[in-house]
Specification:
5 helices, about 180 residues, Universal_stress_UspA, 7 strands, Rossmann fold, UspA
């Protein structure tokens, strides 16, 4: 998709400001957002801190709940190229989500926080379904260091075309990096 096509199909604008954390909010032209929760999609990719900080700030500003979601995709051993950690049980996936929240979203965050683990073969369709009832979906630009010339991962690219609510895209940030990936 070229940038010209992107401009015609979407309303792309800077997001609500969160100090030190750039983001873009993408809406389909003519889309009217609902008043649902801010949904933040997290993974074990080192990006959760920024995603949760952004989601918490926006949810507090909008006065809506914050729902943090981890999509537990089926492992396909021995080759799991898209997975940082494979989970055999729902309990393992829940421990991952709870650990991310405990580390990066302290108690008293100022918003109601809902937790959800979804089991799905692919993350994008699961997040697309959730987005139909959300006010905003927050995702990272990529779970891995973006390839040269490609700053968006496959899940984010799919959500740009199909999300049912505005999509906030937070740039990839390498561990220890002080600047974002774009």
């Amino acid at each position: 998709m070229s940038s010209t096509t992107l401009v015609r199909q979407f309303d792309v604008r800077p997001a609500l400001s969160v100090p030190g954390l750039p983001a873009l909010v993408v809406r389909r032209t003519g889309f009217t957002p609902g008043a649902g929760p801010v949904i933040v999609a997290v993974d074990a990719d080192g990006q959760a801190a920024g995603l949760l900080r952004y989601g918490r700030t926006v949810a507090a500003e909008l006065g809506v709940a914050l729902r943090v979601v981890y999509v537990w995709t089926a492992c396909r051993p021995p080759h799991c190229p898209g997975h940082r950690s494979c989970h055999d049980t729902l309990g393992d996936a829940e421990r991952l989500l709870n650990g991310l929240l405990d580390r990066h979203l302290p108690l008293g965050a100022g918003v109601d926080v809902e937790r959800e683990v979804l089991r799905s073969t692919e993350a994008a369709p699961a997040l697309e379904a959730l987005s139909r009832h959300a006010g905003l979906l927050v995702v990272g630009s990529s779970s891995d260091l973006p390839a040269p010339g490609r700053s968006l991962g496959s899940t984010t690219r799919a959500l740009l075309r199909r999300a049912g609510c505005p999509l906030a895209v937070i740039p990839y940030r390498a561990s220890g990096a002080t600047r974002s990936g774009w």
